[in-house]
Amino acid sequence: MKSLYTFMLLVLCSTISINAQKVVALHSPTNGVQYFDGTSALQDAYNAAVATDTIYLPGGTFTPPALFDKQLTIFGAGHHPDATSATQATTISAHVYLGDNADGFYLEGVNISGSLYLGDANDVSVNDIVVKRNHFDSLIAQGTGDTNTSNNNLFVENVIYSLSTHNLRSSSFSNNIIEHRSNGPFFNLQFVNNVFITSYYNGSYPIITYANSCVFRNNIFLQEYTYLCSGDGQSEWMNNIFCHSNPTLGLDPVLTSNYNMSRADVLVDQTGSIFDYVHDYHLKTGALSNLGDDGTQTGLYGGVYPWKDFSIPTNPHIVSKTISGSSDASGNIQVDITVEAQDN
């Protein structure tokens, strides 16, 4: 834990010393710690990194490499505006592409201005990745899904605009907020404790397309239209909250202990068809009694990965900083920094 505190403090202090440029830290068990600044800081850190290295991104905006094709761990400062006032949010300013050699990639605490791409149209696979507490547009797993598919990936506590996963199998989505359409085909995927906000074109298309042999547990579907899911392979639906009395759930769905509620009675404060940071996704009193299959809450705050308010990353978090406006006779300035460890 001390080493993580040191990284965060050194990054901030280095930022001050080079006239407020953002400094990216690269930690390598092989090559030690290196620092990079300037407009190409993330690219330079990536170029210097080898597999299993860790990159720490401070708040600010960074241009990504054209392809992440190494097994790396990347931590940002977070994306929620209320939790990043001291550092700014960490933003990656373009699409993020993961290549065939990025198996085991870990990404946490960033806002991606574009989409997250797994592989390419030639069925390049990306396996065993973890994507946690990020905010991005679409998750796109390309290819036909017939061969070399992407497997065993975990997406947890993210805000995702939409899914387009033609090349993704045997992966899990837990405790995410998914704004719009989830476009399959999906094969052997698990969706657990997510909140699905809205339908597509006011119910003209299902919010989930082509779900085959998937499992949906403890989710909340805010769609108020009947056409919720299509698919020609049987899926299981357990302990979900539906905001329609009889939603369409694909071919011969297996239904166990699901709930039907008015949308207005489910969440404390959520309106409209898009995600907003000012919303409150906690359950109202009446919905709290509709438990998941594991005995915890349905939705974001239940399950194995309960949602962390403000989406603060798991690495130590800078919660405040004060920098004096002038220097003393020796040229020193006063810097006060408060850093908090995170328990999860």
Task: Give a verbal description of the structure.
This protein has three helices and 34 strands. It has one domain (77-340). Helix content is 8%, strand content 35%. The two termini are 13 Å apart. Strand 1 (23-28) and strand 2 form a beta hairpin. It has 344 residues and is mainly beta. The strands form seven sheets. Strands 2-1-3-5-8-11-14-17-20-23-26-29 form a twelve-stranded mixed sheet, with helices on both faces. This is Right handed beta helix region. Keywords: Signal. InterPro entries: Pectin_lyase_fold/virulence.
Report the average pLDDT across residues: 86
Question: With helices defined by DSSP (H or I, 4 residues minimum), what is the helix count?
Answer: 3
Estimated helix fraction: under 10%
Spans of at least 5 consecutive residues with low confidence: 1-19
Total beta strand runs: 34
What is Rg?
21 Å
Lateral arrangement of strands in the main beta sheet:
2-1-3-5-8-11-14-17-20-23-26-29
How many domains make up the 3D coordinates? 1
Percent strand equals 25-35%
Sheet of most strands: 12 strands, mixed
Helix/sheet category: mainly beta
Distance N to C terminus: 13 Å
Task: Identify the overall geometry.
Answer: globular
Keywords: Signal
Signal peptide: 1-20
Protein name: Right handed beta helix region
Organism: Winogradskyella vincentii
